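Hi everyone,

Forwarding the result from last night's run.
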Amino acid sequence: MLSSASSLVKVWLRPFRTLGAFAMLWLLTLAAGIAISAVAYTYFKHTVLQPLALAQADQLYAIVRAPTPSNLAKNASQAAPDYSLLTRGKLFEINAMKGVSAAGSMRQVQRLSGSGVAAEQIALLYVSPNWLRVLGAKPVLGRRFARIDCDSENVMISEALWRSRFNRDREIVGRTIDVAGEAKIIIGVVPSSVQRVAPEAIFSASKFADLARDQDFSLSVIARRFTALSAENMDATLNRAALNVRATNLHTERNSAMRSTLTPVLALVALLALLIACNASSLFAVSVLERMQALAIEVALGAKLPRLLAQIAGQSL
């Protein structure tokens, strides 16, 4: 068994002993497979896993429901945060804390249309008027929301929508668009730096006044912790307020979840790339072995080695 395996290896390595250039070609093919996996990892690291492009992003938190005692009993080590069904009342109480500024948002899907705009379904995000300030982001054009904009016809659009639908029109501020049959006035463009936090296309300021103070609904809450308040004191303050919520770092929590998902995916990408490289190199080896005599005759007749290698590679591909 071992002798047959050894013979097979010797046969497979024969072209490497006879053709140094072919050995280099095999190594380059294998290196290409390794490079593909390295590029994939680097891309995800510097796009998906990079820090949020927001001012003092380490001080941004998602306010989530605290795990219940029953959930903790089932899984004491990992209690998944609940990002849904926070109350408007809790948003107000968190905003009233010293050293913390909080903002809420609620997502809907609406129909966008208007002059020069193709009708389409778009994601609309209702936000607190202080939402961009909490994120530490400045508009690309126009201005941020103010309290007077709450539940009005004024909206902001994302930078992605501004590029794709309005061709970077610098005169977009003040233009009217139709959202769900209602005329809305664009007052600003939300920068792409908030896209990883909010990928929606249109933003509207709201006090969420049409919802009861203690009513549960799908409200996402983000908070900024000022430097005077430590992360430990923030948790202690939330616990003392008995709001049944906790703060989780926006960047760390997001990247931890993505990293656990992407790690096996990147491992499969690396394995696939290596398999492709090994298969390609094996095809090269088979091509050389099958044509060894013919290649020797061509070399004897004056054929150049680079041309033969290119011919073999083309046939294998």
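The two ends are 33 Å apart (CA to CA).

Cheers,
N.
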